[in-house]
Design brief:
Largest sheet: 6 strands, antiparallel
Strand order of the largest sheet: 6-5-16-13-8-9
CATH superfamily of the largest domain: Probable inorganic polyphosphate/atp-NAD kinase, domain 2
Number of strands: 16
Order of helices and strands: EHHHEEHEHEEEEEEHEEEEEE
Low-confidence stretches: none
CATH class of the largest domain: Mainly Beta
């Protein structure tokens, strides 16, 4: 494999987003400080990221040509096997990138270990270049992550590295019919989360935290962190806040999706029904009345260089 150049995928910092919103840095500072926030924290975070990104570019330029692609361009950017891919940012950026790169190995770099957990970021600016050289030589190890997929009855499809959300785009109840293991129910809920193994430490873990936190009112609680124990080829679905009424049920609240046992959901929402993945609400499938979604394990995998 001969690599043409490296692609550095990054996201805008919170400071950059604020400046876009308020037109100038001074106006952004005025808004944050007036609201009681600490604008200096935004500046420190931004400067740290820019320093790391600049350092990474300097190191990378000695090995291979490179260009930067902002996360917002991922849905339309055409990746191919001649691209050496480096993701610089938070864990979520790895998830956002994976579904667009067709299994190209990803070198994920944590630019700020003081702020980012780095569960999906095994490298830092001071050691990532070793991984780059190994990928160029095709002498590297990678973690394979199976993704989730949502297939609509009209042929549209969406992949997810961490999780899928199926529900309403606004703060109203999602209405749908759900079928799992030959059991069918009509639901009114806050939507459905479908998590991969990789995503079990993310959004899904917050649901576990809430559930176990509430157990203190009915039984003795355990302070240890709770996460789902999923295998590579398994997904877990959880119904958020199911409401039981004369017309809706709450028997199906969670389950394991496999290649053999898929989840079928028919939308009863006349408007505002959506399916999005990995927390990116702007890249979604409309899921309104009459649409049927089949949720399962995708054939595609993400490859994280380790």
């Amino acid at each position: 494999m001969s690599y043409e150049y490296a692609i550095l995928v990054k996201n805008k910092t919170r400071l950059e987003v604020l400046i876009e919103r308020f037109n100038t840095k001074a106006q952004a500072e005025f808004y944050i400080e007036r609201s009681g926030g600490n604008f200096k924290e935004y500046e420190i975070e931004h400067d740290r990221f820019q320093e790391s990104l600049s350092f990474i570019q300097r190191k990378l330029s000695k090995v291979i040509k490179n260009k930067i692609v902002d996360r917002s361009f991922l849905p339309s950017f055409l990746f191919n096997e001649t691209h050496l891919l480096i993701v610089v940012g938070q864990d979520g950026l790895v998830a956002n990138t994976a579904k667009y790169v067709n299994g190209i190995p990803m070198i994920a770099v944590n630019p700020d270990t003081d702020r980012y957990d780095g569960l999906l970021l095994p490298f830092q600016p001071n050691n990532f270049i070793n991984a780059v050289e190994k990928v160029i030589k095709n002498d590297f190890k990678a973690r394979e992550v199976r993704m989730a997929e949502a297939n609509l009855s009209d042929g549209q499809r969406l992949l997810a590295f961490n999780d899928l959300f199926i529900g309403a785009s606004s703060h109203v109840s999602a209405r749908y019919k759900i079928t799992y293991r030959d059991v069918t129910e009509n639901h009114s809920s806050s939507g459905i989360i479908v998590s991969t193994q990789a995503g079990s430490t993310g959004w899904l873990s917050s649901i576990f935290n809430m559930t176990f936190g509430m157990q203190q009112f009915i039984q003795k609680s355990d302070s240890k962190k709770k996460i789902a124990k999923l295998k590579e080829h398994q997904l877990m679905f959880v119904i958020r806040e199911p409401f039981e009424s004369k017309k809706t049920q709450a028997g199906l609240t969670a389950g394991i999706v496999t290649e053999q046992n898929k989840l079928i959901i028919e939308s009863f929402m006349p408007t505002n029904g959506v399916i999005f993945s990995d927390g990116v609400e702007t890249d979604f499938l409309s899921f309104n009345s009459g649409a049927i979604a089949t949720i399962g394990v995708a054939k595609e995998t993400a490859r994280l260089v380790v």
